[in-house]
Amino acid sequence: MVTATIAGLGSALPDTTDQQVLWDGFFRQHFASSRIAQQIFAGAGVRRRHTVADPLSEDLSGWSTAARMRRYAEEAQPLGYRAVAAAMADAGVTADDIGLFTVASCTGYSTPGLDIQLAASLGMRPDVQRLLIGHMGCYAALPALGSTADFVVARGRTAVLLCLELTSLHLQPPTTDPQQVVSHALFGDAAVALVLRPQAEVALGARAPRLELVDIAALTDSGTSDHMTWQITDFGFRMELSPRVPDVLAEHVRPVVKDLLARNGLDLPDVRAWAVHPGGPRILDTVQGQLDLSEHALAASRTVLSEHGNCSSATLPLVLGELVGSGALHKGGPVVAMAFGPGLTLYTALLRAAPGPRGTAVPSAL
Fold this sequence. Notes:
Layout: E1 4-12, E2 16-18, H1 19-30, H2 35-42, E3 48-50, H3 65-91, E4 98-105, H4 114-121, E5 129-134, H5 141-155, E6 158-166, H6 178-186, E7 189-198, H7 199-204, E8 211-220, E9 228-233, E10 236-241, H8 245-262, E11 273-276, H9 281-290, H10 299-308, H11 315-326, E12 333-341, E13 345-353
Parallel strand pairs: 4-5, 4-6, 11-12
Antiparallel strand pairs: 1-7, 1-8, 2-3, 6-7, 8-13, 9-10, 12-13
Helix pairs in contact: 1-2, 2-6, 3-4, 8-9, 10-11
């Protein structure tokens, strides 16, 4: 049976900005020295982030949406190129090998789009198939992974998935809205690419298999659709993020994960590693509590939150890269990934990690 395996990972990150420096140098004044805003920034679990538009040197809060989309087009292509090139090198494949190129992004749009521009600049074949997944938000990596894996299984060909988000382009005008403070305290920019190959091809290659996709599950609680929104305004895209989101996740996360595992003959104690989208500290605490996980279980997610912030759809691939690169998967076994976003939607995936060569960790390009 042909299955799809993540055989290569690569990332590209803009310049680094320190969370405290961002607060002291810009957001303190932007939010009128609000004590609540200061507490939100301090408690976000973020130590530093990466941004293509650093508010310390340029304030985009008054820019039109059109100007922001032009900037997106300028910044996204070189970042995406670097991430995809690194992933292909990590997997040992060339542009000619790629049968499908999938791009997930909710922070910018243009036509001809990023998928067309990058396919050409990377030298992919003119007959490469393309799939653009837009405006799904933070959970987009998993439906994108599932659709890309379906192509790999059905066609027996290699595919690339790129998750690229430039949230810094959507700095909003000054406000007293705590939800806006939360989003500005959490979000950063990143581009992460994954190469998926048929399992048989990976097994015959020089590298050991990485992460085989086994199954995917989803649940949307449409009655809470107003809890998380991403609206296009005259001043970029505006996020609304309700503090009730963790409470909704607390209701659903355990039964969804238990069902996914059960239909594959597994239970919670069988899971070797967890890749949870770090939407914020409260969300990670909620998942940890509802699944009775150890303090160490979400270490990769908390590290990504601290070092990168929430990078929307690119965040979960960063967590997978952290798991692979840290050696946490060197013994192999079941891995559960999950992410959350507008809807309110919970996506979760079951992957199977293969041991690295001679029991060692498989190196990562991340």
